[in-house]
């Protein structure tokens, strides 16, 4: 039995490796140019964000990595430059800026510096996220997952809207998750003061991402700024660091994740596509997976809930008193 399971796992692994190779070949064929474009990516020092930063740098973009841990971000930037090689020198550029989405003060400081130093902003990728962490609060007293995944990015995007409009045609890309399906927007307990379930709260923050993107797209109609959301699929990243896996199950989990989960580069493909592809020029208010438009559940298309969430979020982050 053990031998049969090992053989099955090996076969599955070989198939997965072949599939990954084919996906990589397709990626190389579709790579375009972002020369002269400035892109901000939140959480760009690891996982999906790091992979997107490397690819967009390879495409000659000026990439601003908005990261909480500056030392880790600088290390990631050095590694990315080494990976991309000399080819991008003088054309693409990688810049590290400190950004802690769990602090509205940090978000405002980051945006203030961007507005002072950058003459244009072509793409904003709201990528950073917290996944199923124990109950904790942000610097401003918000539940961590809702505060970072939704509110931090809500303020960030709003403060950069002027620059995005002035740089039009420009794009906002919002990284959500298929797990939005299990979330509900409970306006009576947005901050999880009454009850907290780390899985449901993550799903709620991802549903909030989609509703935010939908409402923002509506508000920006006719400005030349497009807004789309996406799910990256199941990806092997450090996002799941708060998920406890039994010690005895870890070898099997590692094998399964290697065989069937996407690599960060594969998971970042839809973000890169929405940031750079001419195929989605002018497309806005949509939801994508694997570089294709996908349908949403009705609760993710509820415009009344989206507008109410927007209004409440404005007050929570201090845009309205």
Write up this protein.
The protein has 321 residues and is of the alpha/beta class. The chain is 47% helix and 12% strand. It contains ten helices and eight strands. It has an eight-stranded mixed beta sheet, with helices on both faces. Helix 2 links the parallel strand 1 (38-42) and strand 2. Helix 2 packs across helix 3, helix 4 packs parallel to helix 5 and helix 6 (198-219) packs across helix 10 (303-316). The protein is globular.
Average residue-wise pLDDT: 87
Number of helices: 10
Strand content: 5-15%
Helix/strand/pairing category = alpha/beta
Unreliable residue stretches: 1-10, 239-243, 252-259
Largest sheet: 8 strands, mixed
Shape: globular
How far apart are the termini? 65 Å
Number of strands: 8
Radius of gyration: 19 Å
Spatial ordering of strands, largest sheet: 3-2-1-4-5-6-7-8
Secondary structure: helix percent: 40-55%
Order of helices and strands: HEHEHEHEHEHEHHHEEH
């Amino acid at each position: 039995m053990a031998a049969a399971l090992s053989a099955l796992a090996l076969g599955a692994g070989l198939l997965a490796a072949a599939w990954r190779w084919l996906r990589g070949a397709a990626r190389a064929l579709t790579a375009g140019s972002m020369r002269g474009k400035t892109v901000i990516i939140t959480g760009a020092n690891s996982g999906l964000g790091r992979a997107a930063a490397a690819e967009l740098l390879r495409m000659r973009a000026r990439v601003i990595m908005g990261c909480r841990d500056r030392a880790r971000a600088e290390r990631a930037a050095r590694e990315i430059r080494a990976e991309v090689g000399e080819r991008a020198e003088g054309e693409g550029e990688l810049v590290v800026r400190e950004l802690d989405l769990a602090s509205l003060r940090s978000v405002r400081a980051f945006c203030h510096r961007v507005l002072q130093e950058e003459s244009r902003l072509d793409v904003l990728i709201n990528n950073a996220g917290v996944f199923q962490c124990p109950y904790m609060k942000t610097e401003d007293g918000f539940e961590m997952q809702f505060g970072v995944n939704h509110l931090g990015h809500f303020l960030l995007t709003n403060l950069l809207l002027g620059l995005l409009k002035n740089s039009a045609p420009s794009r906002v890309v919002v990284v959500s998750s298929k797990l939005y399906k299990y979330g509900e927007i409970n306006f009576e307990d947005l901050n999880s003061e009454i009850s907290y379930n780390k899985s449901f709260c993550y799903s709620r923050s991802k549903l909030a991402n989609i509703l935010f993107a939908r409402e923002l797209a509506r508000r920006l109609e006719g400005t030349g700024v497009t807004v789309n959301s996406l799910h990256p699929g199941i990806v092997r990243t450090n996002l799941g660091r708060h998920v406890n896996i039994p010690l005895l199950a870890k070898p099997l989990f590692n094998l399964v994740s290697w065989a069937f989960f996407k690599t960060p580069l594969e998971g970042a493909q839809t973000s890169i596509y929405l940031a750079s592809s001419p195929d989605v020029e002018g497309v806005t208010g949509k939801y994508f997976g694997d570089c294709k438009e996908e349908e949403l559940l009705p609760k993710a298309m509820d415009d009344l809930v989206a507008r109410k969430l927007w209004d409440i979020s404005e007050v929570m982050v201090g845009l309205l008193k």
